[in-house]
Amino acid sequence: MGPALDRIALEVSRLVKWMPDVKRACEFSKENRYLLSAVCLRESGAGYATGYLPTGSASGYGDHGHGFGLFQIDNRYHADFINGATSNDPYYQCLKACSILATARVAITKRISLPPDDLEYATVAAYNAGVNAVVHQLAAGQHPDMATTGKDYSQWVMRKASELILYDAKQAVGPGLA
User: Fold this and answer.
1) Which helix (H) or strand (E) holds 14?
2) Helix axes 33-44, 90-111, angle to 10 degrees
């Protein structure tokens, strides 16, 4: 394997234990499991990102104590979920992340008309930066990522989702995401 394939294989190995929850949540919500997996990798490295503690746990914290769980759900905006009885369950974290994406998608479409692909990038960017910041960037003629951490959030997530799809398609044997 080359370095890129080694990297994606490592990421998949970290995602595998969460995939039953990701799949179940995506089947329920109709979100794309590769997209949701890519958000998980960007947000927490599937529980293994630098600074995510405890490492490998679904109940870790990052983002200076504001991001919780595999999807780094922000405690300033989603305190009811984080303080709730199901917040430590990876399935419910997946559902919450799906809900955040779906809510952002609807809110964006109410404020600005976008082609489907652009809407998906804007939705993913809003997961990180919020709907208002993304719509502001779009209204100014800017890419929605200009509002995000690293100014590459949706592009990174969409590229990673594509990598995961390709990796999964190439796996004849061994752990994948299918």
Assistant:
1) helix 3-15
2) 100
For the chain, how big is the Rg over CA atoms in Å?
16
Q: What is the pLDDT of residue 178?
A: 64
State pLDDT tens for residues 7-65: 899 999 999 999 999 999 999 999 999 999 999 999 999 999 998 989 999 999 987 78
What are the structural domain ranges in the chain?
3-170
> What residues contact 73, with CB distance under 8 A and at least 6 apart?
67, 81, 82, 87, 93, 96, 97, 100
Domain 3-170 has CATH 3.40.640.10: no
Instruction: Give residue 98's pLDDT.
Output: 98
User: In a 10 Å sphere around its CB, with 0-12 CB exposed, 13-18 middle and 19+ buried, how is residue 151 labelled?
Assistant: middle
Question: Angle formed by the axes of helices 153-170 and 33-44, to 10°?
Answer: 120
8 A C-beta contact, residue 60 and residue 36: no
pLDDT category, 171, cuts 50, 70, 90? confident
Rounded CA gap, 81 and 93, in Å?
A: 9
